[in-house]
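Project standup — Tuesday

K.O.: blocked on the structure for the chain from last sprint. Re-posting the sequence here as requested.
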Amino acid sequence: MILIEAENIHKTFAEGKGGQLLAIEDLSLQIRKNEFVSIVGPSGCGKSTFLLMVAGLERLSQGRLLIEGKPVNGPDHRRALVFQEYHLFPWKSVRGNVEFGPEMRGIARGERRKIGSHFIRLVGLEGFESRYPHELSGGMKQRVAIARALANDPTVLLMDEPFGALDALTRETLQVELLRIWQEAQCTVLFVTHSISEAVYLSDRVVMMSRRPGRIIADVRVDLPRPRTRGLLLSDEFRDYDRQLKKLVWNEFEGDVQ
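H.V.: unblocked you, prediction finished:
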């Protein structure tokens, strides 16, 4: 089943003195239900802009964008965003942050409690329910942000460089955890990253965008077995995909690579 369908999308931004900046040009993409798809590309190519359009926070200039066959006309709790910055409420505890979405949707306190407990457990933060953001490490804060997003029962989880601010070891740990969470939560993930290795490790497909104006220059299916473990990073199959995608990047941005 096709969940997200983008067709011939263009996005322009107004510049000074009446000018226009073409950020995305003729982007078409289909994403199936429960797929994990990563988008990679250079800074400024429109990756995050496209994510915001799927979220309903940025308007298209031209083209068509459908979720479950319906046009995207604005934000919806079924499309949840996780950013590189955690954007947690500093005055709320872990539980308060995770239960914020259900509370805003009018879900009764007892049911909110069940939802919060489930997702706190899912992200491995049992015992930290009463802690506040300033008492948590960066990795723990990002787990709270993921739990808060999932507590809204999203159809699509939109992740914009969620591990970019973390140290290498924490990043690898959360990559493993994210795959476990995704498989249990059973939702579609659209994941923006600058790391080709991260994209290959996590994804069913890796979509590569060109320099601005951003367009899709490659859509590579990653046929690596699941569930994926850290040991996969050392396999020849993983290295083949990593090398293939890096060559595409180098050829696009630096000329031919042998």
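K.O.: great, moving the ticket to review. The chain has a mean pLDDT of 92. The first strand starts at residue 2 and ends at 14.
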